[in-house]
Amino acid sequence: MPQSVEDRLEEFISTLERDPLGAIDRFVAPDFFSYSPGPEEPTATERIGALVADLLVALPDFAASIIDVGRDGDRFTGSLRVTGTHANALWGAPGGGHRLDWTTRISLRAIDGRFAVRFDDFSAPEIVGVLRGLGLVNPPDEMDQPLHHPVAIPEFLLKLVFTGQASDRPCRHLASIRVTEPSTRVCAQCLARGDGWPALRMCLMCGFVGCCDTSKNRHALAHYEETGHPLVRSIRMDEGWGWCYEDNAFFESATIVRRA
Ligand SMILES: [Zn+2]
Ligand SMILES: [Zn+2]
Ligand SMILES: [Zn+2]
């Protein structure tokens, strides 16, 4: 008799607790929750596997579990809890002994005996707090300073932060990319009124540089609202990712390079 989807999920959950990498390899679907990776793109299985492999090195006592599982039509919901002690370097940030204990709601959908995973409440402020605890992001009052360590957060993680998954749908505007390198390192509009900013974005269609959406004045967002230019990238070269305001889609620096 073939295994029921409930039994299969139970096997995934019990495997995850004793062998996180093996569980991802065997049970996580290649597709993202509502998005199939293109032929050049790594699969969800590969992405999540790489992320967890990094965490297992940095947090030797890393553990993941899924609790409170319920069924909602063709999908399952539950809470993913991850714990561990940051003992070794993680993406450039040395181990500081910080204890990670983080819980988030997830949804799972069965595809051919595997599960597509979505992080349902993977909100930017919350994950930035987690990244700060791990020394990967500066404290709030030092956001405009250079990073304490040469940190290279995987773009896939940033993708999750922005979208909760790989993306709701791919950006439809990539053919409009005209400019990929910033011509200035300041937000001129903030400078004119004596304000500061935590980070800068540049418009990939006309090159406008403005402050980010967590800044007081949100000049990059205002530029989109005024001009309809939806594509921005982080101005920092080590953070080459882009964002489309219209599609709520994240894209990686490799995409920008390919389109440039
Ligand atoms: Zn778009
Ligand atoms: Zn500004
Ligand atoms: Zn523009």
- Proportion in helices: 25-40%
Report the principal-axis shape. globular
SS element count, helices: 8
Whole-number count of domains: 2
Structure characterization notes:
The chain contains eight helices and nine strands. The chain has two domains: 5-163, Nuclear Transport Factor 2, Chain: A (Roll); 174-259, Herpes Virus-1. Helix content is 30%, strand content 22%. The N and C termini lie far apart (53 Å). The protein is an alpha+beta fold and 260 residues long. It has a five-stranded antiparallel beta sheet. It has a four-stranded antiparallel beta sheet with strand order 1-2-3-4, covered by helices on one side. Bound molecules: zinc ion (ZN) (3 copies). One zinc ion binds at residues 171-173, 230, 244, 246-247, 249.
Topology:
Layout: H1 5-18, H2 20-27, H3 44-58, E1 63-72, E2 75-85, E3 99-111, E4 114-119, H4 124-133, H5 155-163, H6 188-192, E5 200-203, E6 209-211, H7 219-227, E7 231-234, E8 242-244, E9 249-251, H8 253-259
Antiparallel strand pairs: 1-2, 2-3, 3-4, 5-6, 5-7, 7-8, 8-9
The structure holds zinc ion (3 copies).
